[in-house]
Amino acid sequence: MAKRKFNVKFFILFSSITITTFLLLGGFYYYQIVLAPERNFNKGNDFMASGNFDKAATSYGRSVSKKPNNLIYLDALKNALLKVVPKSATDASENYNRLISVLTARTRAASTDSKVWIDVMEAMRDRAELYNSDMAWREFSTSAQQMENALPPNDPARSLAKFWKVLGLNGRYTSLPPDEREILDKDLPESVKLLPNDERAWIAYLDYLLLKADMLERGNQRVLSKETLRQFDAAVVECKRLNPQGVAAPLAIAQRLIQMKLENEVQVSKADLDAAFKTIQDVSPRILADRKLTLSAASVLFMGKSFETTNQAMELLQDHLKAFPNDAVTQRIYLNIARSISSGIGRDIANEVFTQANLPTSIESVSQQGAREAAADLLYTLAFEDWRRATEEKDKKEKLAIVLEMRDRVVKFFSSQALLLMVEDIEARTALAEGKSSESAIRFEALLKKIPDPAQEMYFYAGYANILRNQPGTALGLVSRGLERYPNFPPLLNLSARLNGGMGRYDEARKALQKMLELNPDDKDAKATLAIIGDGKKSDIEVAAG
Q1: 436, 425 in Cβ contact below 8 A?
Q2: Distance between CA atoms of 39 and 34, rounded to whole angstroms?
Q3: How many CB atoms lie under 10 A from the CB of residue 211?
Q4: Which residue from 8, 21, 276, 543 lies 20 to 30 Å from 221 (Cα-Cα)?
Q5: Which of 149, 151, 125, 150 is nearest to 139 (CA)?
Q6: Closest Cα to residue 286, out of 331, 245, 240?
Q7: What is the gyration radius of the CA atoms in the chain, in angstroms?
Q8: Counting beta carbons within 10 angstroms of the beta carbon of residue 499, is it exposed (0 to 12), middle (13 to 18) or buried (19 or more)?
Q9: How far apart are CA 1 and CA 503, in angstroms?
Q10: Contact, 111 vs 128, CB < 8 A?
């Protein structure tokens, strides 16, 4: 049998190809896997230096995708994202969610670093407070539990983690199942004990006790409700002892007094409420740097439902915005309230917000679109109200020109955002200003049917349109419907007094005027009209007879 000859040339060729292939693959691996993260990181640094933050974030993101636990890469990506300016509301939301993902990844890279955990938890808390959704609060609680598990037993930040865990439960209190409600009942007071000087913790705890007592009362569990209120009283005393200059206790006391007055539990005088509100005002300068505390204080002042406390609340928000002019979260709240109270305030802030450049990635950038919408609505409303209140014909024409100019400006904005109901609202009011009262009334009637929860102003303008087209009965019906939903809205009360008085229903007119004076004791027009109608001792016929 013949021997096969060993093919040396083939062996050398095959070996050379194999070695070359492995060298190429190794080189490719080294270039793409080993060197690529650092290469992309350096590119990101170059983009950051040139101010191209979008491309920097993209480059850093590639580095992170290769080495997801590299804290240097993660920090670079975080810093780039914080400088990226979104082009739209959708981009703002996506960028903020991406930022939270990066902050979460940092906790995996440095799981025992409390500062890293606090960064992501505060960002998630801001998002949960903005959206106030069960999903956001649930995710917040879950992350707080992970933080508590990851930190060393002796780390002081574990106290924050325990509180945040139950804060997430408290954020969805009304939808909690019984087992989670039991956990909240047990763990919230314990977590507050661990943070005796944390104002946010005390506010959450005291608010929770008031809400719990109210829900028990509504569920006919009066004994448990009273016991919860006793816990509330004891907690307020303890809060004041530990934080004598704090805002949590004054806020809780004012809320409880308002609740007692509404439910006629005991006699609560105006002096009692005034003293409580003054205490809040006295401490307010110390809380302006904290948005949450500022909004909590303003919220309680708004609960006073008077001209005076509403102005105090608005001034508090204004002071905060002076210190933090880019706080779009507070801007949106302030501008929406400014529109609803129809007092003419907020024009300067609305102009600034409407033309403000897009903010870089933050919770403020997420809220900026809502703030712009509120600003646009307020700017048009102020122009329209200026026209409506004008008495001289020349002044009326000048104001109408401004209304039409503002209409074009804000309709263009709302149309670009596909906010068609807002466009319809603007067009309905513009028709009113142009003297087309019938068209305006029809438009408002359609809007009231389309919108499940119409704003208080819509009932007012719908009633006003029907007055101008000489349909007082229809107008009164709309005003009455509005007052059922919004019993403390002065413009609706004013229309109710005028319409009822014009129809000889002086008792109803008197009630509306008295309510207006309750809200604003300095309302001279209401006082004068009430003086004409009388104190109610005369019948409607006697009043009409003079």
Answers
A1: no
A2: 9
A3: 14
A4: 276
A5: 125
A6: 245
A7: 31
A8: buried
A9: 129
A10: no
Long-range CB contacts (within 8 A, 24+) of 501-510: 501/529, 501/533, 502/472, 503/472, 503/476, 504/540, 504/544, 505/540, 506/533, 506/534, 506/540, 506/543, 506/544, 507/536, 507/540, 509/533, 510/534, 510/536
Helix, strand, or coil (residue 354): helix
Q: Do 252 and 223 meet the contact criterion of CB atoms below 8 Å apart?
A: no
Residue 247 · residue 297 · CB < 8 Å: yes
8 A C-beta contact, residue 523 and residue 511: no
- pTM for the predicted model, two decimal places: 0.86
Residue 431 corresponds to which amino acid? A
CA distances from 480 to 80, 96, 185, 339 (A): 54, 44, 42, 21
Distances (CA, A) of 138 to 97, 124, 133, 141: 16, 11, 9, 5
Whole-angstrom distance between the N-terminal and C-terminal Cα of the chain? 141
Q: Which residues have CB under 8 Å from 531's CB, separation 6+?
A: none
Structure tokens of 65?
A: 């995708």
Kindly report the number of other CB atoms within 10 A of residue 391's CB atom. Answer: 6
One DSSP character per residue, 182-206 reads HHHHHHHHHHHHH-TT-HHHHHHHH
Q: Report the C-alpha gap between 499 and 168 in whole angstroms.
A: 48
Q: How far is CA 524 from CA 12, 304, 345, 411, 518, in A?
A: 108, 21, 20, 37, 12
SS3 (DSSP) at 291: helix
Task: Detail the DSSP E strand segments found in 5-110.
Answer: none
Q: What is the pLDDT of residue 342?
A: 65
List pLDDT tens digits, range 466-489.
999 999 999 999 999 999 999 999
Q: How far is CA 294 from CA 196, 199, 281, in A?
A: 20, 11, 11
What's the pLDDT tens digit per position in 393-449?
Answer: 999 999 999 999 999 999 999 999 999 999 999 999 999 999 999 999 999 999 999
Residues in the chain: 546
Please, what is the Cα angle at 374 between 370 and 375, to 5 degrees? Answer: 115
